[in-house]
Amino acid sequence: MSKKSRPFKTEVKQLLDLVIHSLYSKKEIFLRELISNASDAIDRATFEALTQPDLIASGVAWSIRLRADKAARTLTISDNGIGMSAEEVEQNIGTIASSGTRKFLEQMRQTDKGKDAELIGQFGVGFYAAFMVADKVELTTRRAGNDQKAVTWTSDGSGSYTLEDGTRDSHGTDITLHLREGMDEFCDDWRIRSIVKSYSNYIAHPILLATVEDPKDKDKDDAKADTKEDAEAEAKAKAESEAKPLNSMKAIWRRDKKDVSADEYKEFYAHISHDHQAPQETIHFSVEGATEFRALLFVPSHAPYDLFMRERKHGLQLYVKNVLIDADCEALLPEYLRFVKGVVDSSDLPLNVSREMLQDDALPRRIRKSLTGKVLGALHDMLENSPDEYRAFFVQFGKVLKEGLANDFENQDKLKDLLLYATSKTTGTETATLKQVVARMPEGQKLLYALAAESLEMARQSPHMEIFRKKDWEVLFWIDPVDEWIAQSLSEYDGKEIRSVERGDLDLDEGKESAAKAAEVHASLLTAMQSTLDADIQSVRFSTRLTDSACCLVTDANAASPTMERMMRAMNQAVPKSKRILELNPAHPLVARLESLHAEEPAGDKFKACVELLHGQALLQEGSPPKDPARFVKLLSDLMVRADAPA
Ligand code: ADP
Question: What's the gap in Å between 283 CA and the centre of ligand 1?
Answer without folding.
Answer: 28
